[in-house]
Specification:
Blueprint lengths: L1 E3 L5 E4 L9 H7 L2 H7 L5 E2 L7 H4 L4 E2 L12 H29 L2 H4 L8 H20 L6
Parallel strand pairs: 3-4
Antiparallel strand pairs: 1-2
Length: 143
């Protein structure tokens, strides 16, 4: 799980888990639900893997709209759903760019090491990327 700021800068990268785990389960195990339920009033733009988390966090987690009709949806519903989905996607694009910056690093794009070490590699790359992005924001020194 990766959390980015509004500008796409990586703020947090969770440790990896062995095996398959749903996004929403991983968020619950990390304590995100408890933190957001009684914590700061923030808005987190999430993908469809986190649907249902918004109700548990008091609306802090915003996911793409859930599809109400599986088959034979009215035309007006198809248009409305597509508009809502595109609006969410347009707001979330900076988050996706922040995640993509992690994938640019060769250590994560093609991990050839042992699975036991991937979590340490992810944390190290996230820390380096965050430091690099912070340094890029700092004004240049003049002498």
């Amino acid at each position: 799980m990766v959390v980015t700021g509004g500008d796409g800068r990586v703020l947090f990268c969770s440790p990896t888990q062995h095996g398959s785990c749903a996004d929403i389960t991983h968020a619950r195990q990390l304590g995100l639900v408890r933190f957001l339920a009684g914590g700061p009033a923030v808005e987190i733009l999430a993908d469809a893997g986190y649907q249902g988390l918004g109700a548990q966090t008091g609306g802090c987690v915003v996911t793409p709209p859930h599809r109400k009709f599986k088959k034979n949806a009215p035309d007006w519903y198809e248009e409305m759903h597509e508009r809502q989905r595109k609006a969410h996607s347009s707001r979330r694009i900076r988050v996706e760019h922040g995640i993509a910056h992690l994938k640019y690093w060769r250590a994560l794009a093609r991990h050839l090491g042992r699975r036991e070490h991937i979590s340490d590699t992810v944390q190290a790359v996230a820390a380096l990327l965050s430091h690099q992005q912070t340094a890029d924001l700092a004004p240049a020194r003049t002498m």
